Amino acid sequence: MNNLQLPEVTPSASAVVTRPSVKRRIDPIDAPARPLGSKRLALIAKRTNAAASTSDRHAERIAEGDTLLTNHDGTVTFLLRATRYGLVMERTQRHASGIRLVQTMVFHDVKSFDRWCAVEPLRFDDGLLFSKLGRQGHAAFAIHP
What we know:
- The structure is a single chain.
- The chain is an alpha+beta fold and 145 residues long.
- The protein contains 4 helices and 4 strands.
- The chain has a 4-stranded antiparallel beta sheet, with helices on one face.
- Strand 3 and strand 4 form a beta hairpin.
- It is elongated.
- The protein starts with 37 loop residues before the first helix and ends with a helix.
């Protein structure tokens, strides 16, 4: 009635299975970084030195009575100068790639200055610098009415 056979137990082989030696292929992203070339190192040094020399360059242009306003990282600067013709404003914007945009404007009255301030995108980026710019601009018009 009972045809069930019990399995035979054989002694097992070693628990560690040996595989043939396979070298792991190193993914390029895991490899150490290549050293920078001389041109790239020179460009990086030039960019870091440019940021340090910006303040020296502005110091040469500032005369008595001028106002220099700079944002927290130094990428945007405003140089304000009150003259008898109106307010002369130089706006300099530096980019990380080394490009520099310089705009020079002359405002003959407070109304034109306020109109420019109303469309200046800096009011959203750095509100503190923008409010200083407005106050200093209005003070400059008070000097030369």
